[in-house]
């Protein structure tokens, strides 16, 4: 399968993601500039962390108007997997592909740490490699990771099982300990923690592999259905 | 020419840790009379001549809804000031 990694001015995790997909997952991967307007030929899209446009105005608010975004919206609508990590999550909320928004951490501090997450839904195309309620350890590194949505939206997220990962010890003040959510259709995931920084034991954790492996399994099962 | 002053503020339900840090620091400096402090954003947009008030209102609202404010957590309001060049 072939992954696209979107690169915006100020993205800084695109190469970590690239090597995670290429060297650990052994899958095809290509960097796609924010200036492009097509995602044809890709099976999954990854939006990396970083500080696109210096977080000017709000995190993700400017990147959200890049030429690549209409293609991303069409790709998301097609049902294929889209994963936004950290700034990628912020861009997805600003682009209206995920509900809610990411605010300043409650402590007003940038937090760089490894956090235990609880797998809250192990049936999604991003988490099928995990077991329900399993604890996984992933690094976080953000100043604006405090997920906020109103009560009605939260009720919807819960009712539709869209909350995939929760923090065990909420580090940033997120509503309902939310670390990662999907859209209603379940094919767009935004998460603040960085799975690409946890793909080898030497990095302190290899729990991130489960997320990429889940996507690969999903895409390959779809291929069989389509072509088989 | 017209100058549009746009103010973007957090909704009441939104916690603003930056504003709280500033308020606390002022408290430490001895400014005891401060009951509450809000931190928002302020934009000055200068508009070209010849735009009708109706078109300007429409465009400024559109700009705010689309980009300057995030309706999830922010409110905005604006005022339009005619500048000297228009006279």
From TrEMBL, chain A:
Fetch the Pfam families from UniProt: GATase_5
Q: Which positions are catalytic residues?
A: 86 (nucleophile), 194, 196
Which biological pathway? Purine metabolism; IMP biosynthesis via de novo pathway; 5-amino-1-(5-phospho-D-ribosyl)imidazole from N(2)-formyl-N(1)-(5-phospho-D-ribosyl)glycinamide: step 1/2
E.C. number: 6.3.5.3, 3.5.1.2
Instruction: Please provide, in alphabetical order, the Gene Ontology terms of the cellular component aspect for this entry.
Output: cytoplasm
Give the record's keywords alphabetically: ATP-binding, Cytoplasm, Glutamine amidotransferase, Hydrolase, Ligase, Nucleotide-binding, Purine biosynthesis
InterPro entries, sorted? Class_I_gatase-like (IPR029062), PRibForGlyAmidine_synth_PurQ (IPR010075)
List where in the cell it is found.
Cytoplasm
Q: SUPFAM superfamilies annotated for this entry?
A: Class I glutamine amidotransferase-like
Question: What is the protein's given name?
Answer: Phosphoribosylformylglycinamidine synthase subunit PurQ
Q: What organism is listed for this UniProt entry?
A: Lentilactobacillus parafarraginis DSM 18390 = JCM 14109
Q: Lineage from the top down?
A: Bacteria, Bacillati, Bacillota, Bacilli, Lactobacillales
The gene for this chain is purQ
From TrEMBL, chain B:
Source organism per entry reads Lentilactobacillus parafarraginis F0439
> Recorded E.C. number(s)?
6.3.5.3
* Physiological role: Part of the phosphoribosylformylglycinamidine synthase complex involved in the purines biosynthetic pathway. Catalyzes the ATP-dependent conversion of formylglycinamide ribonucleotide (FGAR) and glutamine to yield formylglycinamidine ribonucleotide (FGAM) and glutamate. The FGAM synthase complex is composed of three subunits. PurQ produces an ammonia molecule by converting glutamine to glutamate. PurL transfers the ammonia molecule to FGAR to form FGAM in an ATP-dependent manner.
Q: In which pathway does it act?
A: Purine metabolism; IMP biosynthesis via de novo pathway; 5-amino-1-(5-phospho-D-ribosyl)imidazole from N(2)-formyl-N(1)-(5-phospho-D-ribosyl)glycinamide: step 1/2
Report the sequence similarity comment from the record: Belongs to the PurS family.
Spell out the subunit comment.
Answer: Part of the FGAM synthase complex composed of 1 PurL, 1 PurQ and 2 PurS subunits.
Question: Which GO terms fall under biological process for this protein?
Answer: 'de novo' IMP biosynthetic process
Q: Which UniProt keywords apply?
A: ATP-binding, Cytoplasm, Ligase, Nucleotide-binding, Purine biosynthesis
> Which reaction is recorded as catalysed by this protein?
N(2)-formyl-N(1)-(5-phospho-beta-D-ribosyl)glycinamide + L-glutamine + ATP + H2O = 2-formamido-N(1)-(5-O-phospho-beta-D-ribosyl)acetamidine + L-glutamate + ADP + phosphate + H(+)
What Pfam families does this protein's entry cite?
PurS
The compartments listed are:
Cytoplasm
User: What InterPro entries does its record include?
Assistant: PurS (IPR003850), PurS-like_sf (IPR036604)
One GO MF term = ATP binding
Q: What is this protein called?
A: Phosphoribosylformylglycinamidine synthase subunit PurS
Q: Which gene encodes it?
A: purS
Major place of localization?
A: cytoplasm
An example of a Gene Ontology cellular component annotation for this protein is:
cytoplasm
């Amino acid at each position: 399968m072939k992954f696209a990694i979107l690169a915006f001015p100020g993205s800084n995790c695109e190469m970590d993601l690239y090597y995670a997909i290429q060297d650990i997952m052994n899958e095809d991967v290509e960097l796609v500039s924010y200036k492009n307007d097509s995602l044809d030929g890709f099976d999954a899209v990854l939006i990396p962390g970083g500080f696109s446009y210096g977080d000017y105005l709000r995190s993700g608010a400017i990147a959200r108007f890049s030429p690549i975004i209409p293609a991303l919206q069409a790709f998301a609508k097609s049902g294929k997997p889209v994963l936004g990590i950290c700034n990628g999550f912020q861009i997805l909320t600003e682009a209206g592909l995920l509900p809610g928004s990411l605010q300043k951490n409650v402590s007003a501090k940038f937090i760089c740490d490894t956090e235990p997450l609880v797998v809250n839904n192990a049936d999604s195309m991003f988490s099928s490699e995990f077991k329900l309620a399993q604890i996984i350890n992933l690094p976080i590194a953000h100043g604006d990771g405090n997920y906020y949505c109103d009560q009605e939206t939260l009720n919807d997220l819960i009712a539709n099982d869209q909350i995939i990962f929760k923090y065990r010890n909420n580090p940033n003040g997120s509503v309902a300990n939310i670390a990662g959510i999907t859209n209603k259709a379940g094919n767009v995931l935004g998460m603040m923690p960085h799975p690409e920084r946890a793909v080898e034991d030497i990095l302190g954790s290899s729990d991130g592999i489960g997320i990429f492996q889940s996507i690969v399994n999903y895409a390959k099962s779809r291929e069989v259905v389509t072509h088989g | 020419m017209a100058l549009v002053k746009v103010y973007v503020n957090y909704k009441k339900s939104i916690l603003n840790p930056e504003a709280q840090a500033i308020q606390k620091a002022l408290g430490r400096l001895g400014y005891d009379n401060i009951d509450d402090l809000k931190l928002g954003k302020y934009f000055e947009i200068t508009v070209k001549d010849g735009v009708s008030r109706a078109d300007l209102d429409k465009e400024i609202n559109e700009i705010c809804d689309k980009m300057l404010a995030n309706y999830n957590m922010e409110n905005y309001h604006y005022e339009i000031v005619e500048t000297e060049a228009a006279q």
